[in-house]
Amino acid sequence: MGSLKVLDVTPSPEEDSEKLKKAFQGLGTDEEGIIEILGHRDASQRKKIRETYQKLYNESLIDAIHSELSGDFRKAVILWTYDPSERDARLANEALNSKKRGIKHLEIIVEMSCASSPQHLAAVRQVYCSLFDCSLEEDIVASVSSMPLKKIPQKSILQRLLELPSSGWEPMKIH
């Protein structure tokens, strides 16, 4: 059985950035070192590490991870490194643009709409719009327009995503 290791003192973002840079250098990548750092930091700490890494090395941490890792491990580490709202926006976009169309590809959106707070969903919608130059709502409607909608309990799930209470940010209107 695994155990959770809690650090007495969390290293600074500068120290973490330096350790990550060292993990990327040399022959092979120190995957355990990457997990040791990013796997033991919360979202706000990872954000500070991303910002610090960019300042120190004039390179995006996401780009460095992308060039040094591969496969499912790379995808998992990159998704973990993003802010939660950006991660969810990217996952939603990937699902909506999947070549494997069908009800199954909407599972991530259903999970997000059911398990996330209204504030998180509003943040996801805002990030989605800024990343992909269209609203999440428009992409959902476009994606499901060719499907038999009676298979999707849209009143309880998709409309939760479409009809969030305002958080100071208004989505684009669907015509």
Automatic annotation (TrEMBL):
Transmembrane segments: none annotated. Keywords: Annexin, Repeat. It holds the Pfam family Annexin. GO terms for cellular component: cytoplasm; plasma membrane. SMART domains: ANX (SM00335). It comes from the Eukaryota. This is Annexin.
